[in-house]
């Protein structure tokens, strides 16, 4: 279009159908190509002779932007990745082998348990599907004059893991027999998790948290997006822009589960300490308000107790005041309550001081952070509370009834260990 003062331009757009069509047609084509490029397509991979996708040799390693196996796997424990845009994906796995039996456990991203011990007989194949949320650290950039950032402030451990990258990663464990995988973009109600090390997807054995066990207890119509992080507090979750990341993608009808307290109560951390009388409930109210403003449903979760027994075999509370503050606020704000603090006391006391160390990492020398068995029991308590207290989510809970006062013993729980291992304790311990 001409500039003012040239070719008789007077600020009024003159209609020229031939010219307009000449401009519009290639523009529509360009927009169509951009839309197609931005829309992820289904991916299918064949690990044998099923003919149900792109053949993948076991020697093919993942290359950025492509697909392949992650280094360090074995026949009984391996990881496969495929590059996908941020979003939610339905993963359908065809399990089985023409000649051998199998029992396959599937984890996704940073050890999120999706399926536990899927059995197959020789020559028999079964299909199971589940939903996986994939994210990067990118944020919609703020305007030039506005405060904020264009990325979550992740750390080196985040960058080295599988939770904040450009790909969807699946881990197959036990005696895995995988014939093919199909990955399809989809949309589904999402449960977002905001919290600390007792919630997060722990990157390596032996640490584990309830948030990474919860997906296996829900059906394939709802997805868990675990944004919790070891060492985080209500304040640092804000300053690291982790809440901003959740709020940038959360949709009306989604859920935001909020559990903080273990690190917030530390008065020796003066920049993030919050007291139960004023600042702790005030920050929780802000999280609740931000979720509601976007049409999402907030849920408050009381922090799990530490494993400290008194002389009578009862758990000595270290989170009592913070748990009570959450209960009070949930009633005040008419927010669903998941009282994990009460349930963990019941679980640990039922199993007792002699066996309960088997529910914690570092051979029980850590009294805060669970191992796989402990995380499974805490997630079972969460799922049971969802079934009892949140009618909209109750139909999605598929695990059997769980009574925290009568839990199974640690020896009755078996979850295959992941490839990644670290002797380091989670941050915030």
TrEMBL record:
Belongs to the 'GDSL' lipolytic enzyme family. Keywords: Hydrolase. The keyword Hydrolase applies. InterPro entries: Galactose-bd-like_sf, RhgT-like, SGNH_hydro, SGNH_hydro_sf. It comes from Sphingomonas natans. Residues 195-345 form the SGNH hydrolase-type esterase domain. This is Rhamnogalacturonan acetylesterase.
């Amino acid at each position: 279009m001409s500039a003012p003062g040239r070719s008789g331009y007077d600020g009024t757009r003159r209609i020229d159908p031939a010219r307009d069509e000449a401009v519009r047609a290639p523009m529509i084509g360009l927009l169509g190509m951009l839309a197609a490029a931005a829309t992820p397509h289904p991916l299918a991979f064949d690990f044998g002779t099923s003919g149900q996708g792109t053949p993948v040799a076991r020697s093919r390693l993942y290359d950025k932007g492509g697909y392949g196996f992650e280094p360090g796997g074995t026949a009984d424990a391996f990881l496969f990745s495929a590059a996908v845009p941020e979003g939610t994906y339905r993963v359908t796995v065809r399990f089985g082998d023409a000649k051998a039996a199998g029992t396959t456990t599937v984890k996704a991203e940073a050890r999120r348990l999706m399926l536990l011990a899927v059995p197959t007989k020789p020559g028999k194949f079964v299909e199971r599907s589940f939903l996986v949320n994939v994210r990067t650290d990118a944020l919609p950039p703020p305007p030039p004059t506005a405060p904020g950032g264009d990325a979550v402030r992740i750390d080196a451990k985040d960058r080295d893991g599988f939770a904040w990258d450009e790909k969807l990663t699946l881990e197959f464990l036990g005696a895995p027999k995988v014939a093919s995988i199909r990955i399809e973009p989809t949309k589904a109600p999402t449960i977002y998790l905001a919290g600390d090390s007792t919630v997060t997807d722990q990157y390596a054995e032996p640490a584990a948290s309830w948030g990474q066990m919860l997906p296996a207890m829900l059906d394939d119509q709802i997805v868990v997006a675990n944004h919790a992080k070891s060492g985080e507090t209500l304040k640092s979750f804000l300053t690291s822009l982790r809440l901003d990341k959740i709020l940038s993608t959360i949709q009306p009808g989604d859920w935001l589960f909020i559990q903080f307290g273990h690190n917030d109560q530390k008065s020796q951390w003066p920049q993030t300490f919050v007291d139960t009388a004023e600042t702790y409930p005030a920050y929780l109210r802000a999280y609740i308000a931000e979720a509601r403003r976007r049409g999402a449903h907030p849920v408050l979760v009381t922090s799990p107790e530490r494993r400290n027994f008194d002389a009578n075999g009862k758990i000595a509370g270290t989170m009592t005041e913070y748990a009570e503050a959450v209960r009070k606020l949930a009633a005040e704000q008419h927010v669903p309550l998941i009282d994990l603090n009460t349930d963990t006391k019941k679980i640990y006391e039922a199993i007792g001081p002699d066996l309960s160390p088997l529910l914690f990492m570092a051979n029980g020398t850590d009294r805060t952070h669970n191992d796989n068995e402990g995380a499974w029991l805490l997630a079972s308590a969460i799922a049971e509370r969802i079934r009892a207290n949140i009618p909209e989510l109750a139909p999605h809970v598929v695990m059997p009834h769980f009574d925290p006062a009568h839990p199974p013993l640690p020896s009755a729980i078996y979850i295959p260990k992941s490839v990644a291992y670290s002797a380091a304790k989670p941050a915030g311990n």
